[in-house]
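ARCHIVE RECORD
Type: protein–small molecule complex
Small molecule: zinc ion
Source of inputs: curated submission
Record status: active
Notes field left blank by submitter.
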Amino acid sequence: MTVYHAECAWLADGPAANVLVEVDGGRFTAVTPGVSPPAGATRLAGLTLPGLANAHSHAFHRALRGRTQARGTFWSWRDTMYAIAALLTPDSYRALARAVFAEMALAGVTCVGEFHYLHHDSDGTRYADPNEMSAALVEAAAEAGIRITLLDACYLTSTVDGKPLAGVQRRFGDGDAVRWAERVSAFTPPGHARVGAAVHSVRAVPAEQIPVVVEWADNRGAPLHVHLSEQRAENAACLAHHRRTPTELLADAGALGPRTAAVHATHLSDSDRTELGDTDTAVCLCPTTERDLADGIGPARALADAGSPLCLGSDSHAVIDIFEEARAVEMDERLRTERRGHFSATELVHAATAAGHAALGWGDAGTIAVGRRADLVTVRLDTARTAGTGPHGAIFAATAADVAHVIVDGRTVVQDGQHAHLDVPRALKDAIT
Ligand SMILES: [Zn+2]
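STRUCTURE (tokenized, with ligand):
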């Protein structure tokens, strides 16, 4: 058993001082606020949060950071992204993903939702092991010390009216949803990993194929994620071809529900928001990507009020900082409404922790409570950025650079701001050439 004493810990009902945390077998066995540190306890100075969940990631997009920000459109960014996707092999992707997931660990991420569509060889043929890329990503997460939900994306067409995949997109496709399901079903993840399903988007999966993906997820009780209405052009194309919004199309396909997370959900009608909320569909906001790609500002408060749990993702990894994602949810609402005070610190922490883990199928993580997975993320409150902020203020002030210690399933992955066994900047530099 390991015993920690947190100067301040964010428990299920908010911050508490002097919290004794006992861990055994990767789970919390006792959580006791208001006690003095016993001899032998590991002291956690600062604010200790539950594990942060990065609910939407495309690991290889990290290679675009700094190379696409200055100019261009969403679509020119996508061309650059495709150029990188064309080059990756299972070995090079494993090395890149290991470095990216380790960067996440340094930022306090204990679980990532990897929305994975780079399935096949460069000409679209299957590898000898058709899930070799999946295995590379899952191994990368293990080497970085974090859990992963591999959201295996069905990706079949290049346009909403069914044009075939071309060029690098051929690496993404399985032909049809039945063949996608056969491939995904053959992959057995190890203990730190789970497999979920993804419909890449209403552009990339024809309407009649979506129920096959939904059924696969339903049969396993697995998460189902889908990019939804990130760009107005997607809405326009869907309306023109299907005479329905993407949300309406997904609802008709049976794809919405409490195990589903809609990623972005930026451009929605009033009835779309009601549909998502009424079906308890989660929404994964990715504010740093949405602003980088000029997507727009999603209706976060209205979605939460409609009933959709909110979670967070760093998506394209222009930034990997869940604190920045969390406070952006509030700050973007302020910019849009010219009013302050839409989300409490408690709501933002919940989105970053328990809600994100739940959306990734880890309902037993994201809360510091007896029986839950022993994830702890300690943020220094004595840095130039955080000094004087206090626990409630930290979510509005802290950055990934203020994360001191990260414990995942009871194992120390980051100590004093350093990864336990990886030189992360060097690994990133070596992997991105
Ligand atoms: Zn995405």
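CURATOR ANNOTATION: The pocket of zinc ion is lined by residues 56, 58, 115, 227, 263, 315 (CB under 6 Å).
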